[in-house]
Amino acid sequence: MDLSTVILLLDSSVRLATPLLLACLAGLFSERAGIIDIGLEGKLLIAAFFSASAAAYTGNVWLGLLAGVAASMVFAGLHGLASITFRGNQLISGVAINFLAAGMTVVIGESWFALGGRTPQLEGAGRFHNITLPFAEAAQGVPFIGPIYHDLISGHSILVYVGFLMVPLTWWVLFRTRFGLRLRAVGENPAAVDTAGVSVVGMRFTAVLIAGVLCGIAGAYLATGLSAGFVKDMSAGRGFIALAALIFSKWRPWYALMACLLFGLLDATGSLFQNIQVAGISVPVQFMQALPYILTVVILAGFVGKAIPPKAGGTPYVKEQ
Amino acid sequence: MSEAARNRLTKGLTDLAFLILAAAIVYFALRWMTAGVEAMIDPVTPGRGESWPLWAQIAQLVYLVLASVLTIGVLSVLVFFRVPNMRDAILVPATSIALAIIVTALVIMAIGESPLQATQVMVRGAVGSGYGWGYTLFYATNFIFTGLAVAVAFHAKMFNIGGEGQAAIGGLGVAIVCLSVPWPHWSLALLAATLGAAAFGAAWAAIPAYLQAKRGSHIVITTIMFNFIASALLVYLLVNVFRVPGSMAPETARFAEPTHLPSAYDIAPWLGFRRSTPLNVSFLVAIAACVGVWLLIWKSRLGYEIRAFGHSQTGAVYAGIHPVRIIMLAMLISGGLSGMMALNAVMGEAERLVLDPVQGAGFVGIAVALMGRSHPVGVFLAALLFGMLYQGGAELEFEMPAISREMLLVIQALVILFTGALDNMVREPIERLFLRLRKGA
Question: Quick one: average pLDDT of A266-292?
Answer without folding.
Answer: 77
